[in-house]
Design a protein that fits this description.
heterotrimer, A alpha/beta (322), B mainly alpha (157), C mainly alpha (501), A: 322 residues, alpha/beta, D-Maltodextrin-Binding Protein, domain 2, 5-stranded mixed beta sheet, 11 strands, 44% helix, 19% strand, C: 501 residues, mainly alpha
Chain lengths: 322, 157, 501
């Protein structure tokens, strides 16, 4: 029994010592890289790739762990409650703004510190190639004239695609039938004519656009995308919206600045590494590494935009426990 | 004990009807959402409740109406060993978060190996240690899946 | 030929994919061969691997396992008269008598070659039918899809159970379980009892591990006590390649088996055992020497063996084109695709055509490696039959626990897996089939989503399920399948009660 005590005491001692040295020699043990998606998905593979590249940068293993569920709620709660020592980082996404504002978790994005962004993609408004509308305005005008007839498919109430769809239609005063459908079905529904339009992620429909089966009428982000440069942005079409689907890193609030800076450099270098950038290119995701400052400003802007859209759509904090 | 299929069906149908009652109760208390033109989250569970109710009552009826089925042969299951294995698994699962996969698996393997009829203590020790460690490192280093090792973490590092 | 076909072939023929197929075949032959382990167990063993491998590689692994598991099952059926997998029960009827005559090698050779041709025939079916069916399925709208999934579930129930009520109950319990977690449309929590771990629902792979592996572990415990050992497996295997006369005799039964197997494979839930027995029956009726059947006839081995391997290719057709699995293995294949963000369904061919054809060609390679590894490695492989259960079973138990943990890095899932193990035991005690429950867990979300989207889209007009011709057709089929199995069950009980009197 005594022996165990010694061992426990010794390890405790070792632990406190190492904790004290954290600033000097961070990192000195492996880092937990928490992914809010299930193992094997696209976002997971990218997370694993960047984790691998970051281990090279930091000289200590960055170990990916999946904690999917609740639109990212489980991961964010876990990382927010972890020790602010930089050994637990979250692979974040736009869900950090949606899941918080819809009220899945009792905190907002400012409850964490954010290291930066790695990649982003816009949210397009897609219709079939043979559709009678060639611009978003034509679609919205018809929708306004005949409320509750045109159908728009999106990913699920409260998701980023839902917000984009709601924002685009409400800002144009149109009342469509909103169909919540999962990803591949959404595109199939356009092809089969079951829905008139869909709000989707960017890169998969892009393939179908190139194959001449669909066309994009608008993008949700502020600037045009190089992969589809003819598609106008929502802002150009006179709508006040500027958000895209991003992926980046977050840590617990109160993590020392030295550690955050180190993570930031490692992340940006990893994002620009060959293995990672070629993968992004393949997926047509825009690689847009961004540091703490820039990302913080972006989050603030996007968050305000999302809150106002959610309020307009009656989604703000609807899931919060009263 | 319950050695005719009819008796088993009766027993199961009663359990299922109780389950159905609970399910209906929770379905009735599901959150609703004020969004126009859509079905509520409780829509599908209500359909399931109805199906479950109909089917469980049919099973109940069947167990009364059907002529006496044949008496099932007594299974020659080694009841003692199964119960032992069950409690071993329970203990293992309860302790798993504490002792972790490495230590836990070695002990669990050894216990199961004994239950499955290995009598040679040396063989048990050898195989349980080798196979558990092999699997553990395979996962940790080849598959990159971190299996926690509980209190061993502080001892080993 | 479309560029996707060529890309798919190139993808499936990469070294890493081929190695993975070969590895899958090896595992498949081993688990298929060992009585008490089924293909599902094999899948459970390699499952964690699929979380970390690239999608095409993990699919290749699983396909190799699927194909070879079917063949491996016949080895122990022939050598020990214990079918390694349920699909091999028909093979034992003639395979074991032939082995007893001292022709074990010949019997195994016939089984392997029949498997190969059955698999190849179903590969052709898959290659030609799947893209066409996917094209048709692109026209399906939500009501059609709802009816299709509904039909899939009812036919699974009617095939799986001796009692229709129990089959349906099993499926409904699966649906109850699937409603735990977030509502797929609104995202509200349902039946989660404020448990964070339940928000994303219960993963069907967790359920699968428990449902299939734990009853098997218990079974094997009983077997050991009975003292069944596999020592006779070391029986001398002389010549494996069958002679010309055998090959000539095999033509007809292999043709029947391939056709019946591929066709029944397409129907969800029918599966290997049924196809094997049906083609055994037909071959006997059409044979010139029906009296030989049951005494070690070549045709009697060839027919069921080609049929159960033909089922594999057939089963991939609805899985790839409609996203509807017909058995646990194809359900896992869907799971493996989904965790990689690739949803099987009609769009798979359009959006990821190279990947879809990659799967088809991996299936082709699986058949090639199956025959190669089986023929070359036979002598060594049968040695596996003597691995003591006292080592094998604990290893599998540990892998179950690790597999269910690794899915989401969560101890909670381990407990859920164990709970499902108990449920699996209870269901067996009741003679209630497990497969409908599992497939309901895979299909339940789709069922709900298609139903609700249809209703939103039609503004709550139920008649759309009957006005769309596709939907009406599938609903009629569902009705027929329920009625048919109800009728068959009544006939059966009448018969057995007559016997009792």
């Amino acid at each position: 029994m005594k022996k165990i005590h010694y061992i426990l005491f010794g390890s405790l001692l070792a632990f406190t010592v190492s904790a004290n040295q954290a600033h000097a020699e961070w990192p000195e043990k492996s880092i937990e890289f928490v992914i809010p998606f299930g193992a094997g998905g696209g976002a997971d593979i990218e997370g694993r790739l960047i984790a691998k590249a970051m281990s090279k940068e930091l000289g200590k293993p960055v170990v990916p762990i999946n904690k999917p569920g609740g639109g990212g709620a489980i991961t964010y709660t876990y990382v927010k409650n972890s020790k602010p020592d930089g050994y637990t980082i979250a692979w974040n996404s736009t869900s950090i703004l949606t899941t918080t504002n819809i009220g899945n978790v009792p905190f907002d994005y400012t409850a964490m510190d954010h290291i930066g962004q790695v990649a982003q993609q816009p949210v397009p408004f897609v219709v079939s190639k043979n559709a009678r509308w060639n611009t978003l305005k034509e679609f919205m005008d018809e929708c306004k004239a005949k409320p509750n007839t045109l159908k728009i498919a999106f990913a699920g109430f409260g998701s980023a695609t839902h917000l984009a769809g709601v924002a685009m239609s409400q800002m144009n005063g149109c009342k469509p039938i909103m169909l919540p459908v999962k990803a591949p079905d959404r595109r199939k529904m356009i092809l089969s004519g079951e829905t008139d339009a869909a709000v989707d992620i960017f890169f998969v429909p892009l393939k179908l656009v190139k194959a001449g089966k669909m066309k994009m009428l608008a993008l949700s982000s502020g600037v045009r995308n190089a992969a589809a440069s003819t598609v106008p942005t929502a802002r150009e079409l006179g709508m006040d919206m500027d958000f895209d689907l991003f992926r980046g890193l977050s840590v617990a609030k109160g993590t020392p600045k030295a550690i955050k800076d180190k993570l930031e450099t490692a992340m940006i270098n990893a994002a620009n590494s060959k293995a990672f950038s070629s993968r992004m290119k393949k997926l047509k995701l825009t690689l847009a590494p961004m540091g703490q400052k820039e990302f913080g400003a972006k989050l603030q802007k996007a968050n305000a935009n999302i809150v106002s859209i959610m309020k307009m759509a009656g989604l703000y904090q609807v899931k919060a426990k009263k | 004990m319950l050695n005719s299929m009819n008796k088993r069906n009766l027993f199961a149908s009663i359990i299922l009807i109780i389950l159905c009652g609970f399910y209906a109760y929770f379905t009735a208390n599901l959150e609703t959402r004020n969004i126009q033109n859509t079905t509520q989250p409780s829509f599908f569970p209500w359909i399931i409740t109805v199906c479950l109710a109909i089917l469980s009552f049919s099973l109940l009826l069947q167990s009364f109406l059907l002529k006496k089925g044949q008496i099932l042969k007594k299974a020659s299951a080694p009841r003692g060993l199964i119960i032992l294995g069950f409690f071993l698994s329970l203990a293992y699962l309860a302790l798993l978060p504490l002792i972790g996969f490495l230590g836990g698996n070695i002990l669990f393997f050894a216990g199961l190996s004994r239950i499955y009829g290995e009598k040679n203590i040396l063989k048990i020790c050898l195989f349980s240690v080798i196979i558990s460690i092999f699997i553990f490192y395979l996962f940790r280093n080849v598959f990159q899946i971190q299996l926690p090792i509980g209190i061993l973490e502080s001892v080993l590092s | 030929m479309s560029p996707d076909v060529i890309d798919g072939f190139a993808q499936a023929s990469q070294l890493s994919t081929i190695l993975s197929v070969a590895f899958g075949c090896l595992i498949g032959l081993i688990v298929g061969m060992i009585p008490g382990l089924t293909i599902s167990t094999g899948i459970i063993i390699v499952l964690p691997l699929t979380f970390v491998l690239e999608p095409d590689i993990s699919i290749a692994l699983l396909l190799g396992l699927y194909v070879s598991g079917m063949t491996g099952g016949s080895f122990s059926a022939i050598l020990l008269n214990i079918p390694g997998t349920p699909s091999a029960s028909a093979t034992a009827m003639d395979g074991h008598p032939m082995a007893k005559k001292g022709d074990a090698g010949r019997a195994l050779g016939i089984a392997i070659i029949a498997s190969f041709f059955g698999g190849l025939a179903s590969f052709l079916c898959l290659f030609f039918i799947a893209p066409v069916l996917a094209d048709v399925a692109l026209r399906f709208k939500s009501p059609d899809l709802f009816s299709l999934v509904f039909f899939g579930l009812t036919i699974i129930c009617s095939f799986a159970a001796k009692s229709l009520i129990k089959g349906l109950l099993s499926a409904v319990i699966g649906l109850v379980i699937v409603t735990i977690g977030q509502d797929p449309m609104m995202g509200t929590a349902r039946f989660t009892f404020d448990q964070v771990n339940l928000i994303s629902g219960i993963h069907f792979l967790t359920a699968l591990i428990g449902l299939f592996a734990i009853p098997q572990l218990v079974d094997n415990l009983s077997e050991i006590i009975k003292g069944k050992t596999a020592s006779e497996a070391g029986a001398k295997i002389k010549k494996v390649i069958p002679n010309l006369r055998d090959l000539r005799l095999m033509k007809m039964p292999v043709g029947i088996g391939s056709f019946v197997g591929s066709f029944l494979g397409i129907l969800p839930g029918a599966g290997g055992p049924i196809a094997a027995f049906i083609s055994y029956d037909y071959s006997r009726k059409l044979s010139k020497t029906p009296d030989e059947f049951g005494k070690g006839s070549t045709e009697g081995i060839a027919a069921p063996e080609s049929a159960n391997n033909a089922v594999t290719g057939g089963a991939l057709i609805p899985m790839m084109t409609l996203g509807i699995p017909g058995d646990p293995v194809t359900a896992i294949l869907i799971g493996a695709l989904l965790i990689h963000g690739l949803a099987p369904g009609p769009l798979l061919f359009m959006e990821n055509g190279d990947f879809a054809y990659g799967i088809i060609f991996s299936f082709f390679w699986a058949n090639i490696f199956n025959i190669l590894i089986a023929l070359i490695g036979l002598r060594f492989l049968v040695k596996v039959l003597v691995i003591p259960k006292a080592i094998l079973m604990p290893t599998i138990a540990i892998l179950c626990v690790i597999g269910s943990y690794a899915l989401r890095n969560n101890f909670f899932d381990v407990y859920v897996m164990f709970g499902f193990g108990l449920l699996g035991l209870a269901m067996r005690w009741l003679d209630m089939p497990i497969v409908p429950l599992l497939l309901a867990m895979v299909l339940g979300r789709q069922l709900e989503e298609h139903l609700r989207v249809s209703l939103i889209s039609s503004q709550n007009d139920i008649t759309i399920f009957f006005t769309s011709p596709f939907s009406l057709f599938f609903l009629c089929l569902a009705g027929v399948s329920i009625f048919w199995s109800f009728w068959a069950e009544r006939q059966n009980t009448k018969k057995s009660q007559k016997k009792l009197i």
